[in-house]
Amino acid sequence: MEGWQEEYIAHTEKIAALSAPVIGEADDFDLWYAQQIRAEQEISSLREQNIRLLETKLFPMLDELYGKDEEAIRSLDAFSDRLMDWRTNLDCGVYVAIHDALLSVYRTRRDRDRIIRELYKLGMGFYYLKRFLLGIEGPAKDAFNFRNELLFTEAGSYFTWFNQIEDEETRGYIIRSLANIALCTNNCSRRVRTSRRVLDIARDEEYRRSSPGLPWDAFVRKTHQQMSANRSELSGSELTSEELALILDSCYEVFKPEEQNENPSIRWLWPYYEMEYNCGYVTLDLTLQRMKELILSAPEESYDMSGLYGCVQLPIYLGRLLKKHERLRTNAENIRFLNEAYGKMRRALLSCPPAYQDDYYHYCVAAVITDYYEVPGVPPYAGITRLLLKKCSPDTYVRARRTGDVMRLICGFIYAQEPSYFDDIPFIREITDTAEKKETLLDYAADCGLYGDLGLLKMNITRTLHTRNLFENEFGIYRLHTVSGSRDLALRPSTQRFADIALGHHSWYDGSDGYPEDYERTASCFRQMTDIAACAFFLTDHPEQTADDLLLQIRQGAGTRFSPMAASYLADEELAGKLKSCLAADPGLYYREIWAGLTDTYTSADTP
Amino acid sequence: MSGSENRTLEELQRTVESLQRQLEEAQASNKAKEAFLSNMSHDIRTPMNAIVGMTQLAKKHIDEKARVADALNKIETASSHLLSLINEVLDMSRIDSGRMNIAAESFSLSDLLHDVVTIIQPQMVQKNHRWTLSSSGIVCEQLIGDALRLRQVYVNIINNAVKYTPDGGQIDLSVSESVLDGLCHLSLVCRDNGIGMSEEFLSRIYDPFERAGSTTVTRIEGTGLGMSIVRKIVEAMNGSISITSRLGEGTEVTITVPLPYEEIRVDHAAVQDKNLLILEANPVLISLYDQYLDEFGIAHTIVPSASAALSVLTDADFGKISFDGLIIGREQKESGSIYDIASYFSKAHPDLPVILISEDSWDEIRYHANRSGIHHFIPLPIFRKSLINGLDKVFSGENAAQGASLTPDLTGRRILLAEDNFINLEIAKEILRSTKAEIDTAENGQEAVACFSASSEGFYSLILMDIQMPVMDGYEACRAIRRMDRKDAGTVPILAMTANTFAEDIARAKEAGMNGHIAKPVDINALMQALRQALR
Asked: pTM surpassing 0.90?
């Protein structure tokens, strides 16, 4: 690797470590706060250096890729591999940019072996980029999935000519690509058939003899693991009994060695138990019992994949199971256990040290945000997400709190002028007592600011934003945080009222621009609050500009980007003065909340 | 009574009966007029009330752009309904007074049906209707008649099927022909599984202002004049219309019109030696492709999915077989949209022209289609001659009406290419050579500015500008060109070519006055797409 590549990796690793707040043994808030501020300044400086490295080193290199020699390409390749180690996933955006460029070059040169390799690598890059979209359905994700599938399919289609391809490494990429088609297709049956084909190939003595250097046993093992992952998609899919048996067989293959292990990995025990239930071999009650035992046996102090699987993923699966079966969720004992399991989940996520806050950890956080089952008897979703914001993305929390305070100021001012302004919102309209109405409104406004960007936390794209500017394709993903956050907020009673704000706060008042396209302002009873949120997020999203400039832009955008009524209120000098103070205020108060939240792990203050 | 007295009495009786009949007819006519006026008054007043009410609301909230927009949308809907009502009343009046002329002009049956589907399809999609269009025995593809009136009839009939079929219902259309006494008897059968009609209502279906059920109950809007007009047009064409229906089960309408026809030539010289890869999973269309292409000896392979197409192309690569075109048909077995498919293939196989065969309106989808690499279009439904002639046009380069060929012909145009890297310059020149454009090169931004400045107005059709160049970068060069005091300074398309692909970079290129952005390393397809967009 070249010097600048080592430097970029070092910066990116440092940024990842600095982004997670460490409470540890620090019992002095002021000391901790000073550390946080220093960390933020350091992140900002490293980010600038990273952008400069890409602009002065990577982009010129891609610019001149046609003329680069083998050594330069090898170093670029090595660099990209370091960026997308499957566990840490330092920067899959740059990885994708590199391999997209390499694929273009090799296609032009008609270099078949390299094309196959780049198709595989670009496919892997897309697969990791796609993880930003957990829980999002719709055309954007479909297009992503489809392109991902075609990349692996094209590389895998060379299998027909396996023996004519001389390079053994290229042959390996063909097998891997064939197997990875199963990662992308939505069709469960196709996944099973694909995995089965790869298993047949990987176990075939003729292929093994023809390419002795390939890790055939690893292909078999990993394909069994991949096949066992299909079980989670079983609900709603129509698999034949033969396909079900194949999945069960694979689950057993990964289960068997674990069962004999002294410390078996829960990650490979549960799939077998679940498949035994799916195939009708064991009862629902026994399955629930097994799940409870696994959750209880998961060590809280272990933060590796197995540990997080037992402490986080399994409680999430438990929530899904109870939600699905009325008989189970109406049993008070099961809800009590769910509460206990969620407690374990919360402790594991909040106490996880920075070294373990890798891609899988963030995947677990996203799974909690997507699938948390809010039911009487367990902490509300609003509280859990507030804690996760503090733990996983403190800068998002600080900005969200400031946005909330800006919204509180604006709404307070408007309420004083026009008390019925927000009366389209039913729960506001219903309050008759003036003081209570005002208090409820202002608290609601502050929470709208807090939860409006929940989608950003789940997508974990803020980590990329800490590292560098976004590429165009990443920006497309970033925009989906509105849809993602809105979907998750709308599903839980404690956060439903924030869903429209999350969806609409980046859309334009007249619908002529902004995103997402499917926000219908006039159809939402929360539209006046969303209008205020659009102004508030605009004010807090651009710290590089002065408050005066931002307020001027809001006035200029009245009737197009911003609500003319909201803009006219913001033109008031007294309010503008207060907003400027709020935007410039020391963030210490917000950091104190983070500190308190993470030291106390959970307080009633986190329940709105 | 004498014979003459008897005759007088009979005459008198006949006169009385005749007078009575005339009186009854006059009374009936009066009643019809009253009913007509009453219905018209209701039907016109309803949308007018909406227009007046919404106008008042819009005035009241004039500062709220979104509220005003919402009101305007509603006014637009009501106005459009009112306009169709007035048009139909005028149609009725024109038909009744014998002022309706039936034109006798040559038209393509395929184009007519494509137009009908294009008009109706959005409503079917909105109501989640499943629908099919089948054809059999189509031998006369070029007919002579009044295509506009025929379209009006078809749209009216299918529109009724859509209106009176609940969400998720099924509508089947089938077109057939038979030749008798030198005329082509064209039949359209429209069958739905909607709410159907009672026998009693069927007997009144052609009466003006009759609708199945009250609009307040069914929430189905319409003028109630459609079927009267349909029957009168069909009769004017010497055709016939028959309707069978059962309440709650559905309706089948058959319209047959006799039309003269023209023999059309099938041109297949340009396509006959081509090898086509077709992406189609619909069994009816697969059999049509096989039938028509086999008849003309055109080699083809049909696959049901994009994945299968990729496998075939890989095999072709090894087997040294080449395909000359990829047809994306109506149905595929995978979830990707036609744009996703085209986008992937145009990148992976840039030398393979992508042809779309679809019932969508080309005018509406053209922008997205072009951007994803589709530049040829053949409308559905396909018939023997329309398919072969359409394909022949693609390969003979006559398809300009529907889309440019894969590589734009830029003969007589001049492109200024600013690029400091020698290899990149050579590659770009090599790619551009196929466009037949004249290429001037500049090694940095300053040279590019000087070249442009020294040229006469309109000399350059396009500037391709690298961003990172010594002496003066692409942004600065672009700004300098845009600032020049000459007519073409603001209009000449300038495209950035750069590996800087941060979202901010793309915005920066726009801010500098550039019209577009091509990512580096440049690939053929991306460059051709950009040229086509910029020089359209």
From this structure: no
